[in-house]
């Protein structure tokens, strides 16, 4: 038997490697990658959600409290 088998012969449950949201994001990134590999422009509607996500993270983590004074 392989590593996934317990000593008593029953199969252990394996954790799911991705949440549904993570898997959806992975598929999105894979689609963008396919455009890049094909050497064709990536449609803006595929890139905009990533840009918005980065801007949201930047606003949250790189907020300058002195800039609001």
From TrEMBL:
Belongs to the GRF family. One of its GO terms (molecular function) is ATP binding. The lineage of its organism: Eukaryota, Viridiplantae, Streptophyta, Embryophyta, Tracheophyta. GO terms for cellular component: nucleus. PROSITE patterns: QLQ. GO terms for biological process: developmental process; DNA-templated transcription; regulation of DNA-templated transcription. Transcription activator. This is Growth-regulating factor. Keywords: Activator, Nucleus, Transcription, Transcription regulation. The keyword Transcription regulation applies. Its main location: nucleus. It is found in: Nucleus. It comes from Triticum urartu (Red wild einkorn). The QLQ domain and WRC domain may be involved in protein-protein interaction and DNA-binding, respectively.
